[in-house]
Amino acid sequence: QVQLVESGGDLAQPGGSLRLSCAASGFTFSLYGMSWARQAPGKGLEWVSGIYSGGSDTYYADSVKGRFTISRDNAKNTVYLQMNSLKPEDTALYYCAKDRGITVGDGFDFWGRGTQVTVSS
């Protein structure tokens, strides 16, 4: 069955960096777009970033553009989110999600359980 397992969440200081990983299994990883989304305390789910199946195209929410970088290693069935210049408002539970197709934006059909990122001094 499909499994998405996030890791790398931690407490970071403002201006710091973290790298999230999502290990995927149970499907042909290289055939599907992948995304990251987040949910801050008391707020709704926010899509953060997505990457096409081959890794050639990446997309970002305006709130993270220029600070976060999504990438993937299809040989390792893993998608990453490099987060730099972290802000307190980046504090959230970060989820990895499998897109329905090779691109991004067709909706998600599987989610991980999330990894907590807290940005605080």
Topology:
Layout (H helix, E strand, L loop, with lengths): L2 E5 L3 E2 L5 E8 L8 E6 L5 E7 L6 E3 L7 E6 L4 E6 L8 E8 L8 E4 L3 E5 L2
Parallel strand pairs: 2-11
Antiparallel strand pairs: 1-3, 3-8, 4-5, 4-9, 5-6, 7-8, 9-10, 9-11
Tell me what the structure shows.
- The protein has no helices and 11 strands.
- It is mostly beta strands and 121 residues long.
- Strands 2, 4, 5, 6, 9, 10 and 11 form a 7-stranded mixed sheet that branches.
- Strand 5 (45-51) and strand 6 (58-60) form a beta hairpin.
- The radius of gyration is 13 Å and the shape is globular.
- The model has no long low-confidence stretch (mean pLDDT 96).
Q: Report the C-alpha radius of gyration, rounded.
A: 13 Å
What is the overall silhouette? Answer: globular
Estimated helix fraction: under 10%
If you average the pLDDT, what whole number results? 96
Strand content: over 45%
Series of H and E elements: EEEEEEEEEEE
Biggest sheet architecture: 7 strands, mixed
Terminal residue distance: 40 Å
Oligomeric status of the shown chains?
single chain
**Could you say which structural class the secondary elements and strand pairing correspond to?**
mainly beta
Total beta-strand segments: 11
Q: Number of helical segments? A: 0
* Weakly predicted, low-confidence segments: none
